[in-house]
Amino acid sequence: MGPSALRYAGLDDHLRQVGCSVRDCGNVEIPVRDELPAEGGMAFLPAVVEACAAVYEAGLEAIADGEIPVFLGGDHSIALGTVAAATEADPVGVLWIDAHADFNTPATSPTGNLHGMPLAAITGQGARHLIDIGRPGPKVPARDVTLIGLRSLDPEERSLLRASGVTVFTMREIDEQGIGRVAKQAIQSLAHLPKIHVSLDMDSLDPSEAPGVGTPVPGGLTYREAHVLLELIAASASVGSVDLVEINPILDDRNRTAKIGVELVGSLLGQTIY
Question: Within 13 Å, how many C-alpha atoms sit on residue 124's CB side?
């Protein structure tokens, strides 16, 4: 339902107003949730692999056509397919904006939730079926990943992330240094790469700003901090592809989170105040 909420919030028209040409490729087919195993977690593995493989193919087609794919979710597990597509031809940096690291593996996760594993998998850690989506092996070295907005980690996930080589800016750094300084450091950490993939999880924002997410964590980015971050990325980096994920309209307030998501993608793709 997340992609439908974003369309209803006017994503296409907003991007056209920013100056983009827009082609809506529709949805990839995914299994009906109620037809999947009730226990969830790792029982969803075949369904997630199938969906992400379809996302990967759709992403390859868009990139081959010279377009900037904007992938809509849904939960963050779609990044298994999106990052695979983004990194198919050339090295790409990944800027992961999220309250969570999504760096669990089946061995470390207390829940088995697959949407808590994609960043580990694309760097080569975790379940082989997740790591090998699109093509065998890791999709990006950990040194080419930067995470912003982190404020919630599972205990074993913390150890795995610390040992990984991923660059991390927590909410503490943002509070201490300000979003402008952190954004510039984050962009600089990926400046050696020709393009970046921006993976924006809406729970990076504070729940008071964006309530329609499945795993809200207090103390997140404000509305203006999020816009400043994405405006600085747009001004200083070459964005090759985008994820906009973790929008759950059932939990939202009058589609507020989807509307903010639309505005944020506009900022990332070049909308400015003046």
Answer: 13
Query: What does pTM read for this prediction?
Result: 0.97
Helix, strand or coil, per DSSP, at residue 262: helix
Q: 10-69 pLDDT, tens per residue?
A: 999 999 999 999 999 999 988 888 889 988 899 999 999 999 999 999 999 999 999 999
pLDDT digits (tens, 9 = 90+) for 136-163: 999 999 999 999 999 999 999 999 999 9
SS3 category, 192: coil
The single-letter code of the amino acid at 193 is: L
Handedness of CA 99, 123, 2, 46 (dihedral sign): negative
Please give the positions annotated as active site: 76, 98, 100, 102, 115, 201, 203, 246
179-189 and 223-236 helices, crossing angle to 10° = 40
Tokens at 203, concatenated: 């729970």
Handedness of CA 81, 65, 237, 75 (dihedral sign): negative
User: Which CATH number describes the domain made up of 2-268?
Assistant: 3.40.800.10
**Cα 259 to Cα 241: distance, rounded to the nearest angstrom:** 20
